[in-house]
Amino acid sequence: MTILVTGTTGLVGARLLPRLVEAGLDCRALVRSGKVAPAGAIAVEGDLLDPASLVQAVTGVSAIIHLAAVFRSPDTDLIWKSNLEGTRGLIAATKAHAPEARFIMASTSHVYNADSPRPGREEDDADPKQAYPASKLAAEIELRESGLTWSIQRFGFVYGDRDGHLESLPQHATNGRMHPAQKMSLIHHRDIANAMILALAGAMDGRIVNIVDEAPTSIYELLALIGETMEPSAEPLSNPWRLHVDGALARALGFRPTVRTVYQAAQEKLM
Fold it and tell me: Which residues, including other chains, have CB under 8 Å from residue 17's CB and lie 6 or more apart?
């Protein structure tokens, strides 16, 4: 199986690609001109915003894992251009040159509405207002309507492997005025790889699937785990299901997180 992976230098890609290689998969890494591929992968030059440049990258592949995205940026035009137009370009190249390839796209649990009356489910209506989740949802729709064999994985808060993401949480909690009791669904990099390998086998074809661990954890507890503090509060939590998503579908499709909680990750030094 030959797989094209985009976004291989990003938060998820830099940790997923070595695991795919270790699993014995033949991986191509989409890179910009002059860049080198991560160890174990073959570099193929291309630009998501130039479908013609993607011909060599997609030709002959049996699957595509699309991770490339712009997340935290004040430039909303860049976010939309990269996340929506970039996905359109990759879909166009795939339809033209690898129409039988399985196309797996990484998305985000941030698409779910903050005022949901329950943990976010894949079939819930969503109308995100911020550029990142809104652009990812628009890209999801493009893929679902493409006619390709597709699946979409919506990740909870991604962490582990010394990626620094949890360490950035105090600033985001402050900027977003997050309640200390707010719980988030999380997922460790190791289990993103497990979910991707399951999807590569076809278990998630034609589905949007939440990929999360087994224990949504409060902001207060997460900060304590990384040695930070947060002012406690007994004020009511206005949106108790915000950032909390339902992982039942993934379990029904065979996904079993091996890092079941962030406390396990801490105990096993997987942070």
Answer: 5, 8, 27, 29, 38, 40, 41
Helices (H) and strands (E) in the chain, counts: 10, 11
Six token digits for residue 147: 């006619």
Distance between CA atoms of residues 85 and 49, nearest Å = 7
What's the pLDDT tens digit per position in 33-90?
878 888 889 999 999 999 899 999 999 999 999 999 999 889 999 999 999 999 999 9
Look up the CATH number of the domain holding residue 6: 3.40.50.720
Do 100 and 140 touch, CB atoms closer than 8 A?
Answer: no
* Domain membership of residue 36 as a residue range: 2-267
CB 55 within 8 A of CB 93: yes
For residue range 76-125, list pLDDT tens digits in order.
999 999 999 999 999 999 999 999 999 999 999 999 999 999 999 999 99
Q: In angstroms, what is the C-alpha Rg of the chain?
A: 18
**Count of structural domains within the chain:** 1
**Coil/strand/helix, residue 154:** strand
Characterize the bridge pairing of strands 217-218 and 183-184: antiparallel
Q: pLDDT digit string (tens) for 199-255?
A: 999 999 999 999 999 999 999 999 999 999 999 999 999 999 999 999 999 999 999
CA 74, CA 84: separation in Å to the nearest integer? Answer: 17
